[in-house]
Model the fold of this input.
Amino acid sequence: MDDDRSLVEATLARAPGAFERLLRQHQKLVWHLVERLVRHPEDTRELSQEVFLRVYQKLEQYRFESSLATWIGRIAFSVATRHLQRKRLPLDESFAGDDDDDGLDQISDGFDLAEAFADAELMTCVARELDALPPMQRALISLYHLDELGIGEIASITGQPEGTVKNSLFRARRRLRERLEQAMGVHA
Amino acid sequence: MSTEPNWNSAQIAEWEAQEGAVERLRQGVRKGEDGRVDAYQSLFQAIAAAPRSEPPADFAELALRAVREAQVDEYIERWLMRLAGLVALVGVAVFAGPALWSSLNVGMATTLGPAAGALSSPLLWAVVAAGATAAGCDAGYRLRHPEHRLAPG
Done:
């Protein structure tokens, strides 16, 4: 947090190179989050640039109540979700059968995905199934498993209650496992 | 904002299997006794290893350029608004100035008496009008761009 404070203060004071340092520190988080939500290379580039423009314009409003990464992530999430809304693309959708226990019954307990697929095949299949997830669940998987953010931080970025984030993450992961096991059934 | 999901026992067990797999991966433990946790562990390993889009090498440079260009645009827009305000002011001064000036002098002489002499300098009023126009233009800019922090100058 002290690092955040000194970097923000230097940027507001227009110290040479300060905003560039801020941008380089957080560009991966912004890019990954936007890309996972919009899944379009050119839109990802433009929206990520727009995020940093807004960060620059709004930095005075940052109150150090969360980490700088979380605050920037919130702006990135807001920019990307507004883009999806403008294009009338759904951010999330419920999966059929998610609200009952049947989904769990379809998943076997002793099934080893790694044994069922060769590594490259498993990765290809996971990438395909990740793409098939709704944008919000794809983003949650990315933030939790790739950016290694906690549930609380993700809730802060997405503006959702922690329980909702946990539930969406749970469903997305269960869905991925289920789909991969089904793919294995087709594959065998 | 930390309401727990309303899960049944099967869903809680599934969540614990998912989180057990995350924990095992973080600790670098390879295999366990629980097939369900193993399956999630394989899944999460594949997610971590799957190809991921990264920002291009020149992204930071391009984003910085975009921010600078936006600053320049703000600066130009601000000065254009000031210029437009001053043109309007000059227009008013040329076309309606003499009539306004004489009526102002008559009014001041009536209400202020001898003190009116100090306030009857055209230069003083021109400076006041120009300052008010510039301030009005800046206020207009802020109203149009409430999110923008104005660059100095």
Notes: Chain A has two domains: 2-86, 102-187. Chain A has a mean pLDDT of 86.
